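chain below, 886 aa
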Amino acid sequence: MPVKNLTIITTHVNADFDALASMLAAQKLYPGSLIVFPASKEKNIRNFFIKSMAYLFNMADIKDVVFSNVKRLVLVDTRQPGRIGRLSSLLKRSDLEIHIYDHHPNMANDIKGHYEVIRPAGATVSILTGILREKGIRISSDEATIMCLGIYEDTGSFNFPSTTEEDFIAAAYLLSKGSNLNIISNLIAREINSEQIGLLNDMIQASNFYNINGIEVVVTIISTENYVPDFAFLVQKMIKMENLNAIFAIARMEEKIYVVARSRIDEVDVGAVVSFLGGGGHTFAAAATIKNMTPAQTEHKLLESLYKTVKPERVAKDLMSSPPIMIGPDVTCRDANNSLTRYNINALLVAKKTADKDELLGCITRQVIEKAIYHNLDHVPVKEYMSTEPATVEPDADIFEIQKKIIESKQRILPVIDNDKVVGIITRTNLLNILVRWSQQTATNLPEPASRGSIQARTKNIVKFMNERLSERILSILRDIGRVAEKIGYGAFIVGGFVRDLFLYRSNEDLDIVIEGDGIAFAKKYAEKVGARINAYNKFGTAVIIFPDGFKIDVASARMEYYKFPAALPIVEMSSIRLDLFRRDFTINTLAVQLNPEKFGILIDFFAAQKDIKEKAIRVLHNLSFVEDPTRVFRAIRFEQRFGFSIGKLTSRLIENAVKMNFFKRLSGKRVFSELRQILEEENPAPAIIRLNGYGLLGVIHPDIELNKELVELFNSVKKVLSWYDLLFIEESYMKWVVYFLTLIRSCNKRISGRICTRFEITPRFMSIFCNERFGADKCLLWLERNLPVQNSVVYKRLSGFNTEIILYMMAATKLESVKKAISHYFARLRYTDILITGKDIKAMGLESGPIYREIMQAVLDARLNGKLKTLNDELTYARKYVSKL
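prediction:
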């Protein structure tokens, strides 16, 4: 019959000797209690029971325990709910009394006991031994042997750093009670068999060395079909053999993942690290058992925990240079350059200093200042080109935070702020020196798979993603490009908008290929292979490959651009892929994917483009970007509106500076118009036009163009009209930008319209539309607004002389619904009306050829437009009557 008011003693899953010994000691404190293992025991413990002293334990199988009869739960060597298996279900009961004996440090989700004895010791059984001694409870020699065995194992025979005075005292007391050191020695000093040697070798070979905040940590992963009972023993062997600071061993055994961790240094608290995996332990030894995760997922989660938990060796106040050198915002670029030279530094903080605080405004680098001086901007205050909102750290910031902020914010100097005062700076050189020193402390050629914030490009394999997103034809072309480039010893990359749109899930088949080598030579080889032709531009080292079906590929040699003066065309020099990407307009356009066979599908991200895409931010790569090419302002606005992104604060301020300095006046009208035309080709240009106006850029088109409520409404009306027209599925192309441009200059008279067209170097064909036909259309629109309703034939005669773009403009411009309906009826029903009668039919009526034929056919057309005629017979009858009247 089951016992009621039962006390059970338990420990953690995968119990070790300390857990076993602690349960035995607790059984002495709670007479009549049952020992219940939550799960399987270590193999050597099972052997120990078989061979020796199982009779000492009042043990029950967990399957035989009636949980409702349990009144008291005694936990030893653990207090983590995730480590007591099925027994954790007891914790839900409010009437359960819980007693805890443990030597592990406090964790966030620890079980709370009604009675607790928790203090640091090398082994839990040392704590319990002290209690037994204080209470004068008798201990047999066999019990003393088991309890002493727990102390020896968990202290590493008193060699582990976690060993305390209490462990030595407890062991001495147990020795005085007859503990058999021969048995302990035999069980502790286990021999390694051939299978274990093989596993140990696998663990060593699978080792990955990680530099975690300056601390070297080893992670090894193995996989076996069967459970390895002595895994923790092998991990302990490995840390000694390889002389490691800290090791985390991950093993997939049967259907579970086991993690065993050991540490020899204070900086790596393996108990805290493993707690993130649902495991537990103390500072120098810990373990976890994980279900429903792969080894790779476990490693990833483990590394996250390591970066959060491992203590850095040094903090900001140890690394910073002090006092910091700062200048005011109104200091000119010339004077700032003199300061850089005087102090032999490469960057300056810009701040307003007061007695009690420093208002940090930004920072400026030697590179930006020298470029500004090169562009004759030496008289301009540094506040115009400084980087605003610099990242900062506090004096106690750890090395990981410092590394992350310097690299992610692309800052040369990182201010250290304490109570609103800039107390020092940390430079990139300071950081690099630390990283180099760390790398020298580790073995050469050891990989660092998880080193964060690398100053090199971020890379990852996206082949699977490409296979999912791209058509078979595009994938085949990209692979062929890589193979051809490989044969002639070049590197090949797909770059820019194509890669950007791949991650934005937008369709884009405009292939922009960059070749590390001679792009034109590559284009010739590739075109020859696929039967295409090329147009080469030797001056720029570029070529266009044109397939027989008209598909095009742009090819460029990896190049670096520099500009002789603001708004100039670039001078081009050969360079590497990194410098080629650095010349581009915005970070989001700097992604590249390698195409050479061995590295096909490797994404390269030098400038945190993925981060900016994720954050939906438009950012320039350097502070003089708009000085060198002001047309980038138009592209920034176009991309912002197209993708639903936001222009970054610094980039926005640099746009304002470019407008204030009027760099646009040096741009050719053709370049401005090219960018404006692309904006007007967007699905909805209105928000971009509003944004242009917000920066004062509509004046770049002409000062008389003013954004008002009427113009915004007109743009929205154009969008609705074009959407309506597209739904007609009329097989006639039209130029969207022409309709929007007509709308944009609607308030301009003929003289101003002519000046705009002349400045923009618009071709005569379009100049006629904007400067002549538009005014005819406005007159026609006015007539329709005053005279409708009229017959269909009249509407037809009024509108048939205009092209599609003009008529769509008219339809959008009118505010009268009756006029819109008349124009839409013209498009949908009247425009393509034709008559069936021919000149032969009229001749058969006995009329001589001449102008009368045109008059008759026009009369028939008018009658058909007005709905009077349906068939050829109707037309012939009508024509005969018309002729008879004549």
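Residues 438-456 have pLDDT under 50 and may be disordered. The longest strand covers residues 215-224.
thats it, cya
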